[in-house]
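So, can you check this one?
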Amino acid sequence: MSLNVIDLIKGQLGPALVSQAASQFGESESGISKAIGGLLPAVVGGLANNADNPGVVDAITKASSSGILGNLLGGSSSNPIITTLLSSLFGDKVGGLVNSIASFSGISNNSAGSLLNLVTGATVGTVGKYAADNNLGASGISSLLNDQKGIISSLLPAGLSLASFGLGAENWFGQAKETVSSVTSTAKDNLAEGVATARENVNEGAREIREQFNNNNNDNQGGGSIWKWLLPLLLLIAAGYFLWKQCEKKQTTTTMASSTDSTGTSTDTASAASTPATTATPAAKTDDNIDLNGVMLKGYKGGMEDQMIGFLKSGGYKSAADDSALKDKWYDFDHVNFKMGSSTELEAGSQGQLDNLVAILKAFPDSKVKIGGYTDKTGNEASNVKLSQARADYIKAALVKAGVGAQVLGAEGYGSKFATVDAKATDAERAADRKMSVRFAK
């Protein structure tokens, strides 16, 4: 499985940085987040399109030791590596990219320009660090970037496209134009074939009706049968309707196939099954008061705390005969998230749910739990298992430190063993597999 570098970079662009950037630029956090969501695939796409450019590869190599990652908000705009790199990646299209992002996200052009520098710094800094940590030379970096070419277009948020940046797919990824032409040609051939087939079917139907008409005529000679004028009329109506429906069906099918195939030339690690633009956005969850024996915990109704407390109060844990009766029910953390690629740094807001788990265990001192860590299907599996194990161990250690270690029977990292979402699905879809969970144990 090839590495999706966007997953690595997102660790540098988490909620804390979004909040700081919003405050510094005087923009809303939602606008900053939306802009980053559009800029990140554009920048990675620019790098992928220049994977064999020695100057770009050299900039990535230098970025690992330049301190860019340590000062994204303060030093990105004036860093010569970034300014030179943007010119190499986008040339005279930088202005169009900034304008498009500003319009898309509802922030000012100045803020969009600053974010472009910031995202570029986070990207080259992260890729450079990954290359240094994994002993990748120039050829290794080029290979890594080339692997990203198939993922970029479908990572762009709905409402943005390479064309909206003035970066047509044919200019970025050489085969796209040829593929689109090929698909268009195939679509035309299929449509023509469909029309021909429809005509043959209509002719055959017409022949049968004519025969029936002649038979009826012979049976009613001299009688002035109504069939003499009604059957030709019905024949004409049926033939026209059948031909129209066949052509419409074939054209619709061909258009859909063309759209899917042309998109498929640039599907991402993110998206073998590209999410339709009409997909409804799930309603945002909101924290509520969860009653823990008179103490109110902040959590989602129906979320981890609510489910665990309900199970304990119902006597489900006490009545479980052994561990086998408990092992198939896991409770996913709603708020506990690690920074991308890290097993020792939690995202802001994560500690509160760990505190809630501690409170639940203390309120039910006879209960015991096990921690599980999971990843999605992208990346190297051995590394996934190692990362998920380290994260599970981190949570176990946090619970031990909080005084409930005796109630934690184990921690295990499963990597992508239980992942259900395809490696080429969108990042948002694959997020369901990247989680930390807890279950009761005996």
User: Anything to note?
Assistant: Confidence is low (pLDDT under 50) at residues 174-188, 250-283. The longest helix spans residues 175-219. The two ends are 37 Å apart (CA to CA). The CA atoms of residues 57 and 138 lie 6 Å apart.
